[in-house]
Design brief:
By secondary structure, this protein is mainly beta.
């Protein structure tokens, strides 16, 4: 049987889409609904597609994302690459990076955390408990130093790969050492079209 790849828009206001293989004979079964619900608006990995990964060590303990979302919002006239990597566990946690890049088509580079304000320079954080019972003062750790590097940009796949590390602090001054951070083949979602 010949297969065809099509993109089915989901949550169009966020510009997300889900690749889905279906047989040319065209019977769309409940598997499509399951794929939509399982992905919850995120991009699913398909057979043969490069797998998106985000991993790091937090105070020496391994951390690996369950899913990743990357977008290109604008902060005024400044292009930004925003990457959020989620760990869907109890407690849920995630990394977020807002990387101020030189231009939307020039993403490769080394970007230091905290070189300026949050609306003008690269910043990020680790949210140790992203659940409903989170304490925003204790569970949110902003990077106080370190950097994120985008080592590769695949224009055809519209994806990035790179590294990150640094020290993150919460509001009471507790520190986490983030080391060996890697993101690989993270697909940047296209902007929603009106």
């Amino acid at each position: 049987m010949q297969t065809t790849t099509m993109k089915i828009p989901v949550l169009a206001s966020y510009g997300a889409s889900i690749p889905h293989h279906w047989y040319r004979r065209g019977v769309v079964s409940g598997s499509l609904l399951i794929a939509v619900l399982a992905c919850a608006g995120m991009r699913c990995a398909t057979a043969g597609a490069a797998l998106e990964t985000v991993t790091a060590k937090i105070d020496g303990q391994a951390w690996s994302a369950s899913r990743v979302l990357a977008t290109e919002p604008q902060f005024g006239a400044k292009p930004v690459l925003s990457i959020t990597a989620f760990l869907d566990a109890k407690p849920a946690s995630h990394f977020t990076f807002n990387i101020f890049v030189p231009a939307a088509d020039r993403l490769v580079g080394h970007f230091a955390f905290g070189a300026g304000g949050p609306t003008s320079s690269t910043h990020g954080g680790f949210f140790a408990n992203a659940g409903l019972d989170a304490d925003p003062m204790q569970d949110n750790y902003g990077f106080s130093d370190g950097a994120v590097s985008i080592d590769a940009y695949d224009a055809a796949a519209h994806s990035v790969s790179g590294t990150f590390s640094g020290t993150a602090k919460n509001h009471s001054g507790k520190q986490l050492i983030i080391s060996d951070g890697h993101f690989t083949n993270v697909t940047i979602e296209s902007a929603a079209k009106p």
